[in-house]
Amino acid sequence: MHTGNGADVLYSLISIHDVMPATLPRVRGLLAQLRRHRHQWVTLLVVPGRDWHPAEIDQLHAWQQDGLELAAHGWSHRAERLRGIRHRLHAAFISRRAAEHLALDASGIVERMRASAEWFTRKGLQAPSTYVPPAWALGRVPHDALAELPFQRIEVMRGLLDPRTGRLEQLPLLGFEADTRVRSGFLALWNRLQFLQAQRNGLPLRVSVHPDDARLRLAASLDHYLASVPSSIRYADHPREAPVPARCPGA
């Protein structure tokens, strides 16, 4: 697979999803892999509503002190129920039971996002400026409600949403969570096209990594892209530019 050397990509925004107590050993392994490819500035997507013990909170403190960004990533990372046909289709083809926002109405989503932010300060961590709903499925929330939340950016599938203005900056996205042959084939093609889009347009490239990716079907592809993409920056250091007007996206 030829992707070029990434010279025309502006920079990369690398995130590790699903940071929770059970995944911390694999997250450490991914961070080591990223550092081998000279990616020091990474955003970790933390799931607050799991059973966090003091030693695990200490690890989050240590990562934050090392300069890694901690972002809020839902609350439980699991939908308690499937709510309507849209959610059922999303679960079947994309998220399985991870898209917890889609099981909630607008007030429930806002309440969960606020609780997620407050968890960090209760644990003595820096408040997150970035929120990423599980499976990038934000759900239907009015702009004015999002604007009242303590986040500077919300990542959805298409890019980065500014909750204060309702504008969306569309950015290419790579993903590697391929646990079936169908997902593997789809993501391999998707990644090629997204990488080329970033190259041709001189855009930042989002690289989404999940805890098991290093041992799934696209493990070699993940390592290849990490060697190909340019230096990474944290989401918090990405300029707040959103040139493309958009309604609040649902997923």
Give an account of the 3D structure:
By secondary structure, this protein is of the alpha/beta class. The protein has a single domain, classed as Glycoside hydrolase/deacetylase (TIM Barrel, Alpha-Beta Barrel). The protein is 36% helix and 17% strand. α5 (143-147) links the parallel β4 and β5.
| Rounded radius of gyration (Å) | 17 Å
**Estimated helix fraction:** 25-40%
- Strand portion, in percent? 15-25%
Largest sheet: 6 strands, parallel
Amino- and carboxy-terminal Cα gap: 30 Å
Poorly predicted spans: 1-7, 87-95, 242-251
Q: What is the overall shape? A: globular
Q: CATH H-level name... which superfamily?
A: Glycoside hydrolase/deacetylase
Structural class of the helix and strand makeup? alpha/beta
* CATH overall fold name: TIM Barrel
TL;DR?
The chain is built from seven helices and eleven strands. The protein has 251 residues and is an alpha/beta fold.
Could you outline the blueprint of secondary structure elements for this entry?
Elements: E1 12-19, H1 24-36, E2 43-46, H2 54-65, E3 69-72, H3 84-95, H4 106-122, E4 130-131, H5 143-147, E5 153-156, E6 159-162, E7 167-170, E8 173-175, H6 181-201, E9 205-209, H7 219-228, E10 232-233, E11 244-245
Parallel strand pairs: 1-2, 1-9, 1-10, 2-3, 4-5, 8-9
Antiparallel strand pairs: 5-6, 6-7, 7-11
